[in-house]
Amino acid sequence: MLLAGAALFAAGEPAAAVDGGAYANVVPAPVTARADRGTFAIDRHTAIAADPGADGVAGYLAGILRRSTGYPLPVVRPGARGSGTIALRLTGGSDAEGYRLDVTPRGVTLAADRPAGLFAGVQTLRQLLPAAVERDRRGPGPWTVPAGHVADHPRFAYRGAMLDVARHFFSVAQVERYIDQLALYKVNTFHLHLADDQGWRIMIRSWPRLATYGGGTAVDGDPGGYYTQQQYQQIVAYAAARYITVIPEIDMPGHVNAALASYAELNCDGVAPPRYTGTDVGFSSLCVGKDITYRFLDDVIGELAAITPGRYLHIGGDEAQATSQADYVAFMNRVQGIVAAHGKSALAWHQVVAATVAPSTVAQYWDTTNDNPSVAAAAARGTGLVLSPANLAYLDMKYNSQTPLGQDWAALVEVADAYGWDPGAYLLGAPAGAIRGVEAPLWTETIRTSDDIEYMAFPRLPAIAELGWSPAAAHDWAAFRLRLGAQAPRWKALGIDFYPSPQVPWV
Ligand code: TNX
C-alpha cells in the first residue's frame, strides 16, 4: 500500500495497520493516520518553529532530539525559516488535546488548538522517528520521519495511572522517571497514593509527625520516606510540563494506620497503635465520632489543596472494613464537604456510592465484576466514573503464576486481558456518558525499584492507555500486539525494563 503512494489507516482497518510502517505502529492508535511517499530528514540545519505559547512543548521536543541527534535544533518563531523546520502551530480553538500532524519532505507541521494537543502530537512524532531517537547519547542517524498525515484526538478526557508511594516509597527522581514513561502513551493524569497503613508520604506542616514518624517505614520494614511540600510541588510541576495533572490521594477513613500511629489523639481510645509493615488491608479507621478527626482533615486537605493546582483530591474510601456502614456514610459525606470548602472536587474509590455522592465527586471503580448495580445506578444519576477494574487494569497483578512480583487476588492479567475490554461498554447499566476514562493503578506491596515499576507497567500500561485514547473502532488485539511489539526498541533505548510477554511478537 505504501508503494501506491498513500494509504489510509482509519480506525477499524486492522489489515491496513500491518502495512503502513511507522504510521501503523503508533500506540495509542490515532484516529486516522496515512503514510505518504517520501521522508523528512532532521539534520544539523533543522529548526523548531514554535508559535508563541508553544515554547514549552518546543523546548521539550528539542531536549529529546538534541540528546540523540547532537544537532542544535534552535527554537525559533515561524517565518524565520521556510522549509527544514518542525513547526508547532497553535490554532486557538477549543479542542483540548487533539492535534494534526503533517510530514512532507519539506518539513513537519504539528498543529493543535492547545499546547496539550501539541504535546500529544510530539509523542506521535517521536514514534515516527527511529527508536534510537530515545537514547540519551548521540547516535549516527539518519533521523528520518516518513511522510504522512495524522489527525487525532482522545476518546476519554481522563487517562490515568496511579503509583502507590505509601507501601513502598519512591524518590522524586523515580516518580519523574515514571511520569516521563506515562507521557509517551498520552496519559494525562497521575494519581499519587500518598498515605496508607504502611506510610504517610507528604509533609503536612500543621501535623508534622505524619511524615516524620508515620513516613518512617514501609512494607517489610523497608526504608520509608516522604516528600516535603516543595518536593511534591516539584513533582506537580514536572507532570504539568508534560500536560499531566497530579491527583494526590489521602486514603480514608480506612488505610490510616500511619496517621493513627503518629497522633494518639486521632484514635477513639486515645492510644496510638504501632507502625505497620505488613500487607493486610481493612483494619484501621479514623475515629468518625471525634471532632479532632475533622480538624485534622481540614488541615490536611487544606494544605494539600493549596499545593495542588488540579481540580481533584482523592479521598480514598475503599476497604473501610473497620468502620461501621453508618459511620462510613456520615464520614464520606462530611469529607466531601471539606474538599469542596477548599475549592476542590473529590475523587473516591467506588464504595463512596454508599454515601450521598456530591454532583462533582467522581467514583473510581476497581471491582472485578462488570455487574455492580449500585455503581451503575449512581452513574445513571450523574456520578462520573473512572474505570480501573482490578482484574484488567491493576498493574500489580501478576502476568502469570510465574511472575516474580505482584499479587494475584484479582486475577492473573496478561497483556491481552489488560487490552481486552471496552471502557465505554464495560459496566452493565452505566450510561456511556458517565465514563470519564480509565486508570491503571500500581500498588506497591511487592514493588521496590524503578525496574519493578517498569516490569509491571510495560506492556500493560500502553494497553490501558490505548483504551483511554483510541477510538472504540480501533480496538483490535491482532493489530495491537503488532504495534506493541514494535515499541520494544524504544523501551530498550529508554532503558525500560519490560515483561516480554509471549503474546506479543517483539521486534
Ligand atoms: C486493593 S482495591 C487495594 C489496595 C491494595 C491492592 C493490592 C483498592 C482500592 N485497594 O489497598 O494495595 O488491592 O492489589
From TrEMBL:
Superkingdom of the organism of origin: Bacteria
Residue ranges of domain Glycoside hydrolase family 20 catalytic in the record: 156-471
Catalytic activity of the protein: Hydrolysis of terminal non-reducing N-acetyl-D-hexosamine residues in N-acetyl-beta-D-hexosaminides
EC id: 3.2.1.52
CDD domains: GH20_SpHex_like (cd06568)
Annotated keywords: Glycosidase, Hydrolase
Keyword Hydrolase found: yes
Sequence similarity: Belongs to the glycosyl hydrolase 20 family.
Listed name of the protein: beta-N-acetylhexosaminidase
Organism of derivation: Dactylosporangium salmoneum
